Amino acid sequence: xxxxxxxxxxxxxxxxxxxxxxxxxxxxxxxxxxxxxxxxxxxxxxxxxxxxxxxxxxxxxxxxxxxxxxxxxxxxxxxxxxxxxxxxxxxxxxxxxxxxxxxxxxxxxxxxxxxxxxxxxxxxxxxxxxxxxxxxxxxxxxxxxxxxxxxxxxxxxxxxxxxxxxxxxxxxxxxxxxxxxxxxxxxxxxxxxxxxxxxxxxxxxxxxxxxxxxxxxxxxxxxxxxxxxxxxxxxxxxxxxxxxxxxxxxxxxxxxxxxxxxxxxxxxxxxxxxxxxxxxxxxxxxxxxxxxxxxxxxxxxxxxxxxxxxxxxxxxxxxxxxxxxxxxxxxxxxxx
Length: 336
Fold this sequence. Notes:
Elements: H1 3-10, E1 13-15, E2 24-25, E3 35-39, E4 55-58, E5 71-74, H2 78-90, E6 98-99, E7 104-105, E8 110-111, E9 116-117, E10 122-123, E11 128-129, E12 134-135, E13 140-141, E14 146-147, E15 152-153, E16 158-159, E17 164-165, E18 170-171, E19 176-179, E20 184-187, E21 190-193, E22 199-202, E23 207-208, E24 213-215, E25 221-224, E26 229-230, E27 235-236, E28 241-242, E29 247-248, E30 253-254, E31 259-260, E32 265-266, E33 271-272, E34 277-278, E35 283-284, E36 289-290, E37 299-301, E38 306-307, H3 308-335
Parallel strand pairs: 2-3, 3-4, 4-5, 6-9, 7-10, 8-11, 9-12, 10-13, 11-14, 12-15, 13-16, 14-17, 15-18, 16-19, 17-22, 18-23, 19-24, 22-25, 23-26, 24-27, 25-28, 26-29, 27-30, 28-31, 29-32, 30-33, 31-34, 32-35, 33-36, 35-37
Antiparallel strand pairs: 1-5, 20-21, 37-38
């Protein structure tokens, strides 16, 4: 499409040839003639000299005069407009395929309009499925599950009994929602299992990555708030409550009954012990071990975790320890 047409769809102001034909969207280094790339900040501005892109999505003032010979789409948030441009060029419009005769559908199931249920999906009894829901092959949905409109369950997803999933939710392959919580009581040297009779509630517009496990509550519900995005291979324990618009990155492990506020970022391989409270907008740095409550808006890192600024100072000292030890031994020898 014309650059002008793209700007009308995604927003922004065209600088240069508004009638330029745009054939696709790509990165700065990978882009070819006819494609539009993006530059969010001056950090990667050196790549502008060598890019073959015909146009760039960027902010006002990032590219100097004469630095790029193509056209520009000037926007406030280049990352956002880049994402929207990708949707325009590559996201296929929804098209319902109906219900495959090779899918297994239980009794008293309610199916909304324009659903797509692929072969070998299993849907238990008394399940409620909204409109335009897509269920790919080998998905298991247990009894008494409800799924909201426009939700997508990719192949090999398991949704255990009694789980409630909102609208616009995406669950990627291999995720298990509603597996038993890890609850045992020690008795005479053994481990007596506590029945896990609660459920899971996934609110609207949540995305759950491949291989994620979300345990059902012992009683009550494990809750993932609307707009939260969970990367691959994350463990969410029983009775955890995650707020809205959180980001949880790969291999994080969240212990049982943890309470997480809104807008929290939990980086990769962080571990949070049970019954901890994480305040809204807090940031947990990768590989941190969280053993106590974290206040709102704070950044914590390390294991055991401490405020990030303290951790940075401690790390700078840690790097100097070999030299400090050498000097200490020299001083000891001089004293002797």
